[in-house]
Recover the amino acids of this structure.
């Protein structure tokens, strides 16, 4: 029997909604978005493999494994027909799960999925060894990322001026500091997501998404931050052509991290979409 997959239960009233988090950001970093959803849904959130005790980056060969973990979690919990919401890595994994086991998921909300342009993905597909190279920028940055600080206050002060957090409120950044770090035996605060795991995920972008998107028949909401550097305009347009029956919403003043930057607006968009679904 498989070991139970760790998860957070945020409670709430109504049907089950599962939230799948992004690379580098544990579920509780999305506290404000999740709180807005629990008025209407019972929200659960799996911890992806990088957060499992003793997990090793080398065990990941592609993102399908993360989707398989979601299905195993649903099976362990006896869940079927859940609302599948995911951000970035979590969005792609949720789509994979829905395609593999359609009855497990009733509807999809894909927030900034990692749908890179086909020309870029073809390079990764043809030269997979290169994706693991330290010369690949995202991998190089992740591997060299500072991993610990003497205190949470010093971690906050380190991250506050960073460009990636420019759209974050202080409250949102503190959520990251409290829930994206743990205290080690020496009393230092350490990233819950190891740089090695973060780099491994960046090194293996999903290369089959454009073949699979047209096969998605679930009701789908796609959300994009207008200032994103991940789901670029050309990919956003390509997605709309590949899945014309889906609903697409772009949010101004937001980047790839829009569910943390704009939690109230993202929650409103999700709830409005789900309210229109057939019971």
């Amino acid at each position: 029997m498989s070991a139970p997959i760790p998860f957070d239960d945020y409670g709430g009233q109504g049907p089950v909604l599962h939230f799948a988090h992004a690379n580098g950001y544990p579920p509780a970093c999305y506290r404000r978005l999740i709180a807005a959803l629990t008025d209407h849904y019972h929200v659960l959130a799996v911890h992806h493999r990088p957060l499992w005790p003793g997990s090793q980056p080398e065990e990941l060969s592609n993102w399908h494994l993360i989707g398989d973990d979601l299905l195993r979690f649903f099976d362990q919990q006896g869940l079927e027909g859940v609302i599948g919401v995911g951000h970035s890595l979590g969005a792609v994994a949720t789509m994979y799960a829905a395609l593999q086991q359609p009855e497990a998921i009733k509807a999809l909300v894909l927030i900034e999925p990692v749908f890179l342009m086909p020309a870029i993905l073809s390079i990764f597909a043809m030269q997979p060894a290169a994706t693991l190279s330290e010369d690949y920028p995202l991998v190089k940055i992740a591997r060299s990322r500072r991993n610990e600080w003497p205190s949470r206050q010093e971690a906050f002060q380190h991250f506050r001026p960073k460009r990636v957090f420019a759209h974050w409120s202080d409250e949102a950044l503190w959520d990251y500091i409290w829930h994206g770090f743990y205290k080690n035996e020496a009393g230092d605060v350490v990233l819950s997501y190891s740089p090695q795991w973060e780099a491994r995920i960046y090194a293996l972008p999903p290369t089959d998404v454009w073949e699979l998107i047209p096969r998605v028949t679930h009701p789908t909401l796609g959300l994009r931050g207008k200032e994103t550097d991940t789901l670029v305009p050309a990919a956003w347009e390509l997605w709309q052509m590949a899945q014309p029956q889906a609903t697409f919403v772009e949010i101004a003043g937001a980047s790839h991290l829009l569910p943390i930057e704009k939690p109230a607006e993202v929650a409103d968009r999700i709830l409005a979409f789900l309210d229109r679904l057939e019971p």
Q: What stands out?
A: The mean pLDDT is 93.
